[in-house]
């Protein structure tokens, strides 16, 4: 599992050019680390979209520790980020909480 380079928000010019929202989230990061989790829902949704796209592969299952490890690459409060990703519907989990998946996007 090589996710070390996937979380860098400004690594790929082509990724930045795909969406103006991607450029907007860059100011939330410093040195590849998230400096703040936005309080405003719309801004937080932009961040969650970015994290989902950059940290989690489509059609792959993750354990909770794997989700936490991926989120810790950008911010120490992995629990809050994981909760936001679940409540926003960007990640799904099984009833027993053992398996997480990136949700199919409708956007």
The dominant shape is: globular
Mean pLDDT metric: 83
N-to-C order of helices and strands:
HHEEHEHHEE
Oligomerization category of the chains in this entry: single chain
Q: Low-confidence runs (pLDDT<50, min 5 residues)?
A: 1-19
With helices defined by DSSP (H or I, 4 residues minimum), what is the helix count? 5
Structural class: alpha+beta
Main beta sheet strand tally, sense and closure = 3 strands, antiparallel
Distance between termini?
27 Å
DSSP E strands, number = 5
Rounded to the nearest angstrom, the radius of gyration is: 13 Å
Helicity level: 40-55%
Beta-strand residue percentage: 5-15%
- Strands side by side in the biggest sheet: 3-5-4
Would you give an account of this structure?
The structure is a single chain. The protein has 107 residues and is of the alpha+beta class. 43% of the residues lie in helices and 11% in strands. It is built from five helices and five strands; from the N terminus they run H-H-E-E-H-E-H-H-E-E. A three-stranded antiparallel sheet has the order 3-5-4. Helix 4 crosses helix 5. The chain is globular, with a radius of gyration of 13 Å. The N terminus is likely disordered.
């Amino acid at each position: 599992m090589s996710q070390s380079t996937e979380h860098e928000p400004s690594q790929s010019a082509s990724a930045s050019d795909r969406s103006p929202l991607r450029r907007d989230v860059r100011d939330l990061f410093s040195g590849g680390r998230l400096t703040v989790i936005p309080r405003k829902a719309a801004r937080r949704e932009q961040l969650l979209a970015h994290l989902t796209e950059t940290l989690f592969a489509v059609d792959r299952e993750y354990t909770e520790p794997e989700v936490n490890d991926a989120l810790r690459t950008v911010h120490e409060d992995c629990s809050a980020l994981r909760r936001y990703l679940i409540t926003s519907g960007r990640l799904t989990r099984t009833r027993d909480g053992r398996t997480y998946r990136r949700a199919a996007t409708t956007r």
